[in-house]
């Protein structure tokens, strides 16, 4: 008996030791992580906003691989702090501390003529614009966190005597998705038509048009189309729902109107634009602007100007017509700032097929984000600040938009994900839709530049524009002496414009962007003003291929700014390797990893090609002819194209 008790004691001691080890090594670290305060700028904002994200509205569990993969990375970064490496081991901080990034820029800023905006005029303009939302709605804009107007199903009057096969069911728990009718389509299948918010939505590809539901019933090998017996009831439902929605939206808000704050980051960003770039090197405004675009709630959503052009709202001749394979929206935030939203269309590890023409390639949201970081590392500062964000397409787009056309292109997929697509004359179908998971969707947000009313911009065709046809070629692709012709044309004959074109070509070659058909610049700064590097979403498509024709301005003209060359040579050194500083810089984005490792390594390979091209030019024409120190010093070889490295 005593022996048995000793055995029991040993067993209890062993179990107690195992339990203590489990508590100490497993449970206690988890409790510490939960109790540890997290810094919101560095971590993922999703955890703090979990209560505001409506994840169960019309959504069965569905997990597209891309969204889940990157969302899990965002959570991992939140748990680990999500901060970039700091201190002596940070190559990015060492790069920005290098004397080359602290050299005073020339020409020095002398006065108001070097600033893009006159501050007083700009502030008056923004005050007027800030008051417009209140005038349009009759009340103040909705405060962040205040209840959103919905379509409560309880307010809908029940239509009399629906057919027995059409049953109006109770709404979903979120009160947004209501089953309107179940239609038998053969003995083995039943299809369902839904009301989603204020639209009739067909989630199973039944034709629903002008509030009329039709269905096809197969019988004896023949197909017959029959109009629903309750067309009038559908019209009644739809009109009643629209009426209630408008009444709710026009109710006087009890919340105080949102006020335009002149210290808002986007206002300060606009006021800080000079002839040297969109922002200064050490400007704290950019970091604040990126943070605000990542976290501020949206108060409106609308199509961009090129989509509106196709709908007759503006002059189509000023834009390149979009197709359904790309989509962008304008989102306005609670501080009245605006950003261009480009949703995720392609997985990060996918390469653009070699058979794709550059003008039908996908527009990638991660390319916009990476292009901004690369532009800042190169010290160009010509790409508007861009940040990644997980957007709730239901709450942050659908529920805040007033554009009925945009509302009409939302639907619920068969996988119960909320989707929408572009509205344009061709290729705009549900096959080209972007979908949340079920509501969250990755995208890039690019800060808007000042209004054209305040800061007019000039859109100029790129002299090295490509042929947007299946078989045509431009003159520069056939004539190796093409640059001699360009140098004789205004404004490339006397200004700094040609050197800026070559800077842009170097930037495009690094990201692999073949779609630079136009460039823009502010008219106030004249012919020597910097070029704005907009629309970089077709970059980073093929990491395994280096498109040498993008470098044609450099190889044909054999000219480069001394400042640009010094930065490229610095980034080729091991202590400041371009791929390393890009990797570190992109870790600060919510959607990290923004680029896959092959794309980062391709940057180093392409940088080496650029430097070899410059070396070939120097060997052929001499250093003084190739390297230009400033606008007044522009000697260049008369002709001759250097051979590019294969």
From TrEMBL:
Highest taxon of the lineage: Eukaryota
Residues reported in the UniProt entry to bind ATP: 342, 446-449, 520, 535
Main location: Golgi
Subcellular location: Golgi apparatus
GO molecular function: ATP binding; metal ion binding; protein serine/threonine kinase activator activity
Binding-site list for Mn(2+): 535
Record bears the keyword Metal-binding: yes
Recorded GO CC terms: Golgi apparatus
Enzyme active site: 515
Cofactor(s) the protein needs: Mn(2+)
GO terms classed as biological process: enamel mineralization
Record domain FAM20 C-terminal: where: 410-627
UniProt entry keywords in alphabetical sequence: ATP-binding, Disulfide bond, Glycoprotein, Golgi apparatus, Manganese, Metal-binding, Nucleotide-binding
Spans annotated as Disordered: 626-646
Annotated signal peptide: none
Family classification: Belongs to the FAM20 family.
Database matches in PANTHER family: DENTIN MATRIX PROTEIN 4 PROTEIN FAM20, PSEUDOKINASE FAM20A
Protein name per UniProt: Protein FAM20A
UniProt organism field: Tupaia chinensis (Chinese tree shrew)
């Amino acid at each position: 008996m005593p022996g048995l008790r000793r055995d029991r004691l040993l067993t209890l001691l062993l179990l107690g030791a195992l339990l203590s080890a489990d508590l100490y090594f497993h449970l206690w670290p988890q409790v510490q992580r939960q109790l540890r305060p997290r810094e919101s700028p560095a971590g993922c904002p999703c955890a703090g906003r979990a209560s505001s994200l409506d994840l169960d509205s019309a959504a069965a569990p569905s997990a597209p691989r891309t969204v889940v993969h990157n969302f899990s990375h965002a959570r991992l970064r939140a748990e680990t702090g999500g901060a970039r490496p700091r201190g002596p081991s940070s190559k990015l901080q060492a790069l920005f501390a290098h004397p080359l990034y602290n050299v005073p820029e020339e020409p020095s800023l002398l006065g108001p003529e070097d600033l893009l905006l006159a501050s007083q005029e700009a502030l008056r303009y923004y005050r007027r614009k800030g008051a417009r939302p209140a005038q349009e709605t009759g009340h103040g804009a909705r405060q962040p966190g205040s209840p959103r107007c919905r379509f409560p199903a309880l307010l809908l009057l029940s239509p009399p005597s629906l057919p027995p096969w059409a049953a109006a069911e109770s709404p979903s728990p979120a009160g947004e998705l209501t089953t309107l009718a179940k239609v038998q389509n053969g003995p083995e299948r039943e299809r369902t038509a839904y009301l989603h918010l204020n639209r009739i939505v067909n989630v199973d590809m039944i034709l629903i048009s002008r509030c009329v539901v039709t269905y096809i019933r197969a019988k004896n090998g023949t197909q017959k189309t029959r109009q629903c017996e309750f067309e009038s009831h559908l019209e009644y439902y739809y009109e009643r729902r629209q009426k209630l929605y408008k009444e709710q939206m026009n109710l006087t808000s009890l919340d105080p109107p949102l006020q335009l704050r002149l210290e808002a980051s986007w206002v300060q960003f606009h006021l800080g634009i000079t002839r040297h770039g969109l922002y200064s090197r050490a400007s704290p405004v950019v970091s604040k602007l990126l943070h605000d675009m990542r976290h501020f709630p949206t108060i409106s959503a609308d199509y961009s100007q090129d989509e509106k052009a196709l709908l007759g709202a503006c002059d189509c001749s000023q834009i390149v017509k979009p197709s359904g394979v790309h989509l962008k929206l304008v989102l306005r935030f609670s501080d009245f700032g605006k950003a261009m939203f480009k949703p995720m269309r392609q997985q990060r590890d996918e390469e653009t097929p070699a058979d794709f023409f550059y003008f039908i390639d996908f527009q990638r949201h991660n390319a916009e984000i990476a292009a901004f970081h690369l532009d800042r590392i190169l010290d160009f500062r010509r790409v508007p600040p861009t940040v990644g964000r997980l957007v709730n397409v239901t709450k942050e787009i659908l529920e805040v938009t007033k554009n009925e056309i945009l509302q009409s292109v939302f639907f619920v997929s068969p996988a119960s994900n909320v989707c929408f697509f572009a509205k344009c004359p061709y290729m705009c179908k549900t096959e080209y839709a972007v979908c949340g998971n079920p509501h969250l969707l990755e995208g890039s947000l690019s800060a808007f530049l000042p209004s054209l009313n305040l800061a007019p911009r000039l859109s100029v065709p790129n002299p090295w524009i490509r042929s947007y046809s299946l078989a045509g070629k431009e003159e520069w692709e056939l004539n190796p002496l093409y640059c001699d012709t360009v140098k004789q044309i205004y404004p490339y004959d006397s200004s700094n414009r040609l050197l800026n074109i070559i800077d842009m070509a170097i930037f495009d070659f690094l990201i692999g962007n073949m779609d630079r058909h136009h460039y823009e610049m502010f008219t106030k700064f004249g012919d020597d003003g910097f070029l704005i590097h907009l629309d970089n979403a077709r970059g980073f498509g093929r990491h395994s291929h280096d498109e040498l024709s993008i470098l044609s301005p450099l190889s044909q003209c054999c000219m480069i700014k001394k400042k640009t060359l010094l930065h490229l040579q610095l980034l080729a050194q091991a202590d400041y390797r371009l791929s390393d500083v890009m990797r570190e810089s992109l870790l600060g984005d919510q959607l990290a990893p923004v680029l896959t490792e092959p794309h980062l390594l391709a940057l180093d390979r392409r940088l080496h090609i650029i430097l070899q091209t410059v070396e070939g030019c120097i060997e052929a024409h001499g250093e003084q002819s190739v390297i230009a120190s400033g606008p007044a010093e522009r000697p260049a070889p008369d002709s001759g194209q250097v051979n590019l490295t294969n």
